[in-house]
């Protein structure tokens, strides 16, 4: 039985005899894995389609969930790759790792596919804004995982105006009106506004992350995400290269 799907390539891993085991995020937002036999041979016609974040049409052969299914074909439809754009390549590695961990086999979450497609298109159009796009993706990913409290009202007193000064594990975002915080530890002013930008912008308008508030917010969300993931190699590489 052959199943053909639109999907985004996540991680290709070398397998014996020059094969590759490739993980995908399908159009339904489910993680699927397949074996591409002989994919590393120069003659293999589909080899270029296995770059992380490529949008492809992929055919799987075999019984679902029963075994490692064979990849029968893989046609490249869109690649976010821009030659010479280092930040963008590093960010693509981070996004592939993140979605490879978050997406699950046998569980469909179409939001994941929409988010990754949007970020991938934005990276192609604006490779120089790759780090903003990564911060945007991290924010929505944490939201999809149910781990990002809504910033509209303080989690303790319900205040919707006072600046947010802290993200607490059990109450969510806390405001200056009800939470005394050492000024050195309080989040900088503008957190609420930055979170609102993240929630309302499309990926191609991902907000800048230069301001103090945006920087603090990005660090907080990234740390939360990486704690959940238990660390990712692509992030270690990126930290060495650009951050
Ligand atoms: Zn409050």
Structure notes:
The protein has 243 residues and is α+β, with helices and mostly antiparallel strands. It has one domain: OB fold (Dihydrolipoamide Acetyltransferase, E2P), CATH 2.40.50.140. 35% of the residues lie in helices and 22% in strands. The protein is built from 6 helices and 7 strands. The strands form 2 sheets. It has a 5-stranded mixed barrel. Strand 2 and strand 3 form a beta hairpin. The chain is elongated. The termini are far apart. The model has no long low-confidence stretch (mean pLDDT 93). Residues 154, 156-157, 159, 174-175, 177-179 line the site of zinc ion.
Strand order of the largest sheet: 1-2-3-5-4
Sheet with most strands: 5 strands, mixed, barrel
Large-scale geometry: elongated
Corresponding CATH superfamily: Nucleic acid-binding proteins
Number of strands: 7
Total domains: 1
**Contiguous runs where pLDDT drops below 50 for at least 5 residues:** none
Q: DSSP helix count?
A: 6
Give the name of the CATH architecture: Beta Barrel
Please bin the fraction of helical residues: 25-40%
* Beta-strand content: 15-25%
Termini separation comes to: 47 Å
User: Which molecules other than protein and nucleic acid are bound?
Assistant: zinc ion
What is the N-to-C succession of helices and strands?
EEEEEHHHEEHHH
Radius of gyration: 20 Å
Oligomer: single chain
Output the CATH topology: OB fold (Dihydrolipoamide Acetyltransferase, E2P)
Q: Regarding CATH, which class? A: Mainly Beta
Mean pLDDT: 93
Structural class: alpha+beta
